[in-house]
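not sure who needs this but someone in the group chat was asking about Riboflavin biosynthesis protein RibD from Hymenobacter jeollabukensis so here u go. i didnt clean anything up, its just raw.
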Amino acid sequence: MPDLTPEPEDFTAHDALLMRRALDLALLGAHTARPNPMVGCVVADADGRVVAEGWHERYGGPHAEVNALNNVPPGIDLAQCRVYVTLEPCSHFGKTPPCADLLIARGARDVVVCNDDPNPLVAGRGYAKLREAGIRVRTGLLADEGRRLNRRFFTVQERNRPYLILKWAESRDGFVAGPGGQPVAISGPAAKMLVHRWRTEEQAIMVGTRTALNDNPQLNVREWPGPNPLRLVIDRTLTLPTTHHLLDGSQPTVVYTNKEQPDRDNLSFVTVPAQQDLLPAILDDLNARRVQSVLVEGGPALHTMLLEAGLWDEIRVLRSRTVRIGAGGVVAPPLSLTGLREQHDLGPDELFVFG
């Protein structure tokens, strides 16, 4: 019986460099791998030179290890190489065969991994297979960076809900809209472009009833290349006019309501009984749809509900340096600076990131 005790962590700076390259490769699958995690793989020879690379390019397609090993040039002995992969190699048959089996079959002898896979179908079984085959396995290299990269995937696996990002723009005096919810142009061009980039990075985007009524948003991507998110709107009593953008059928949209309503092209209605808690019902539905992340764009009532319930992972606030709205406006959600992680200058605006 082989010794399955994990190897001590004796990583070098060069190991870290190659794992960081694998993380960079993983990011290339940001728009196409989901709902699978982003994974990258680097194969280096005995002298530490990269001989092959790969990443998980699309959901349902070959995993990162498969693509990397297929790129190993003829004549290279994998037993003399070290394989760097950002997530524990899978051990089960899904849409593709197990990557752990492939590494064993191809003669790998040394594997370094960034993050453990919390998926119950893997969860240590990949490591066990490799170690039972006599492969040296070391884990945890740049683990924090890997978790940050795949934070959406880890949230779904560990909390059974999507990663939730609350986003709003507020005036210098702390308002998000004018009197009665009247829309006010708050953010400058750089901030608007950044918001559209954010939309490409998340699977879904959500607004509440009042924001949908007052702003008539399109919730699509216009100022950055990338896919449109799934649109989500809360409309308990089906008060949105059929002429509003969210009901135009131009992109997949889900409406959460208390009333029965038949689906239409690109438009789904999910009935939540009035006596049932709305937020858990929405999150359960999104989990069933395998939605990994939601950008919640408003309004303040929805943001406050999520804040009070502790249902958020990240908050992004765009604060204008110049625009003031004055008394009578809609006040931004209450938020202290506790947990501030990033602060950025965007010309006439500042970006504050919490969480």
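also The two ends are 45 Å apart (CA to CA). if thats useful
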